[in-house]
Design brief:
The protein contains 10 helices and no strands. By secondary structure, it is an all-alpha fold.
């Protein structure tokens, strides 16, 4: 498959993720006290993954997340060149998605940007590492067998919904550096100042998931 087509697919997928899912968060709110909006936001993120998995999954694998791409790189399922191309496409897609979203809802909506939990960097890093670890290890597991291909998109989408259901009340749930960077760049202020947390933690969580899954799934040799 032509690499450029893969990168375009990743751009489109990440654009859709930010526009629809972050857009839902911006429109309905993602406060833990607002149950309906909370669940709608969690579902929006999961449903976008399902939609994209079955549309661009056969082209790029539908990573639309640098944390997923770094796990695939560590698992030797993609080249360094493709990893760089994917990540660049994902970040550009996220910025474009946030820009179009801002045209509809304005910067004041927050654009679904992430925020530190109780102003605590360390707790925010920890929860994001844990959430990303769970999400990415689910991806690695369900995509490890071709027989799972028919249901993989649904499983991955539900896994993302799961981590959002818990994580929204802490950080708004990132588990995706690109998804966090796009809105933060345009919102500015504290969102941009703290976005490094939502870049570093998901990458660590994704890498850790790859290392652990590769260890657990490695066949024993005599």
């Amino acid at each position: 498959m032509n690499s450029i087509k893969k990168y375009v697919a990743e751009f489109i997928g990440t654009f859709v993720l930010v526009f629809f899912a972050c857009g839902t968060a911006a429109v309905v709110g993602c406060s833990a006290e607002n149950g309906t909006g909370y669940l709608l936001t969690a579902l929006a993120f999961g449903l976008v993954i399902v939609a994209m998995a079955y549309s661009i999954g056969n082209i790029s694998g539908c990573h639309i997340n640098p944390a997923v791409s770094i796990a695939m790189l560590i698992s030797k399922k993609m080249t360094v060149t493709d990893f760089i191309g994917y990540v660049v496409a994902q970040f550009i897609g996220a910025i474009a998605g946030a820009a179009v979203l801002m045209a509809f809802v304005g910067k004041e909506s927050g654009l679904g940007a992430n925020a530190l939990y109780d102003g605590n960097i360390w707790l925010s890093l920890l929860i994001e590492v844990i959430l990303t670890f769970v999400f990415v290890i689910a991806i690695l597991g369900v995509t490890s067998k071709t027989s799972n291909s028919a249901v993989a998109g649904i499983v991955i989408g539900l896994s993302l919904t799961l981590v959002h259901i818990l994580g929204i009340s802490f950080t708004g749930t990132s588990v995706n550096p690109a998804r966090s960077f796009g809105p933060a760049l345009l919102v500015g202020g504290d969102a941009l100042a703290n976005v490094w947390v939502f870049i570093v933690a998901p990458l660590v969580g994704g890498a850790l998931a790859a290392v652990v899954y590769n260890y657990l799934s490695a066949e024993k040799t005599k």
